């Protein structure tokens, strides 16, 4: 019941950040259960799919138009979906398209896919070097993000309750919207000096998160980053950092990081 309430709240928040299909400026069309829009270059972007299927192979064309993009949260809440294949025609993937797909364990792309890659079961975008999606079903308790990753995408780790720790390399510069929402077994996390921005709700509802270290490099922190983190006891900062100012303004518990010898 509690989880269902949190999921509902997240969906409402998502709707405020990403307009529903009916609110898109583009005309919405339907083909084979896919709601899509036509992009300026005459290709199709999948905006929504809600059929109760377990395995799905995304077509490379809809109504004769090449499918080149998967929109923000396009498959959100497809709880029956266990496996999905993405064609080579897709060159762009938005905010976690498989958010809250609680049964999805496998996304496949061709090994030579021009824009996407699967590394240890995790989906990455080659174009912007972004971690797009980590499976909620993965049983690993620890994960090390590959070096060279620049961005942890919006919703990338949402609902990954098995994870207890994630190692973030010093190549990562940004952490996206809802990136680690409902990662309930996180107790502490350290952000590397490369990170410059943390988007809204990035660590929201991480109920066991008690400590996080935010470096001086972070110059932008979004709204309610730690919303629902009821056990957060300390945000480790340095005195003159933006994170320190943010903590003071938002009433967050903070301690000063000791200077290295």
Instruction: Spell the H/E element sequence.
Output: HEEEEEEEEEEEEEEEEEEEEEHE
How would you describe the shape? elongated
Number of strands: 22
Main-sheet strand order equals 10-11-12-14-16-18-20
Q: Which spans have pLDDT < 50 for at least 5 consecutive residues?
A: 20-24
> Structural class, judged by helices and strands?
mainly beta
Helix content: under 10%
Distance between the terminal alpha carbons, to the nearest Å?
Answer: 49 Å
Please report the number of helical segments.
Answer: 2
Question: Which band does the percent of strand residues land in?
Answer: 25-35%
* Major sheet details: 7 strands, mixed
Mean pLDDT: 91
Gyration radius, in Å? 19 Å
What would a concise description of this structure say?
The protein is mainly beta and 261 residues long. It is built from two helices and 22 strands.
Describe the structure.
- The chain is mostly beta strands and 261 residues long.
- It contains two helices and 22 strands.
- It has a seven-stranded mixed beta sheet with strand order 10-11-12-14-16-18-20, with helices on one face. Strands 1, 2, 3, 5, 6 and 8 form a six-stranded mixed beta sheet that branches. Strands 17-19-21-22 form a four-stranded parallel beta sheet, covered by helices on one side.
- The relative contact order is 0.09.
Task: For this entry, give a set of tags.
mainly beta; 22 strands; six-stranded mixed β-sheet; seven-stranded mixed β-sheet
Secondary structure layout:
Blueprint: H1 2-17, E1 29-31, E2 34-38, E3 44-49, E4 55-57, E5 61-62, E6 65-70, E7 83-85, E8 92-93, E9 106-108, E10 116-119, E11 122-125, E12 130-133, E13 142-144, E14 151-152, E15 165-167, E16 174-175, E17 188-190, E18 197-198, E19 211-213, E20 220-221, E21 234-237, H2 242-250, E22 254-256
Parallel strand pairs: 3-6, 4-7, 6-8, 7-9, 12-14, 13-15, 14-16, 16-18, 17-19, 18-20, 19-21, 21-22
Antiparallel strand pairs: 1-2, 2-3, 5-6, 10-11, 11-12
């Amino acid at each position: 019941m509690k989880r269902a309430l949190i999921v509902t709240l997240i969906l409402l928040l998502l709707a405020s950040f990403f307009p529903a299909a009916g609110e898109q400026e583009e005309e919405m069309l339907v083909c084979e259960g896919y709601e899509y829009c036509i992009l300026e270059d005459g290709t199709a972007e999948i905006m929504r799919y809600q059929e109760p299927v377990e395995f799905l192979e995304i077509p490379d064309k809809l109504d004769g138009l090449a499918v080149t993009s998967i929109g923000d949260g396009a498959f959100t809440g497809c709880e029956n979906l266990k496996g999905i294949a993405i064609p080579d025609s897709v060159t762009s993937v938005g905010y976690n398209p498989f958010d809250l797909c609680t049964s999805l364990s496998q996304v496949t792309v061709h090994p030579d896919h021009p824009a996407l890659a699967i590394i240890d079961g995790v989906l990455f975008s080659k174009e912007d070097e972004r971690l797009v999606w980590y499976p909620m079903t993965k049983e690993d308790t620890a994960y090390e993000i590959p070096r060279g990753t620049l961005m942890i995408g919006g919703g990338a780790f949402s609902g990954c309750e098995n994870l207890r720790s994630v190692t973030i390399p010093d190549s990562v510069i940004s952490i996206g919207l809802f990136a680690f929402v409902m990662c309930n077994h996180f107790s502490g996390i350290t952000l590397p000096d490369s990170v410059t921005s943390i988007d809204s709700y990035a660590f929201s509802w991480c109920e066991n998160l008690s400590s996080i270290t935010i470096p001086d490099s972070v110059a932008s922190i979004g709204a309610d980053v730690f919303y629902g983190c009821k056990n957060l006891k300390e945000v480790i900062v340095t005195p003159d950092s933006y994170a320190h100012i943010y903590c003071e303004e938002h009433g967050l518990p903070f301690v000063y990081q000791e200077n290295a010898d």
